[in-house]
Amino acid sequence: MKLVSSAFADGAAIPRRFTCDGENLSPPLQWSDAPEGARSLVLLCDDPDAPAGKWHHWAVYDIPPEVTQFAINAAQNARMKQAVNDFRKAGYGGPCPPHGHGPHHYHFRLLALSTEGLPVKANASCGDVEREARKHVIAEATLVGWYER
Q1: pLDDT (average), residues 31-52
Q2: What is the pTM of this model?
Q3: Pfam families from the entry (predicted)?
């Protein structure tokens, strides 16, 4: 499976407009080669460089396997199932590392699952979604971008 963005390359800087210092838009993402047995997809974004440990920025779950991309600001789609991030808001929270903390790396991960839907509560956290999804993963793709303030 492959996960890419037209806004930034793997290992490159995430443009400001997709961060808390810009418009805080979710970036455009495209994926391909999901395995044939995939019954749903989950998209996660987190920052493992956060001072207090991994910071969850976004989790979208129960994505139909025929979906192969998210446009810019797809997180504004109220029909998408999105978890509560560590900013305590449902949906996308862009990169927002502490000032002077150096570059933080943001891991966008696409998980292909063997189950059609995740049995999580309506206000599930990103961590809840990831824990449940990990029980059903059949493939995974990662895209990493960085941002520094």
Answers
A1: 96
A2: 0.96
A3: PBP
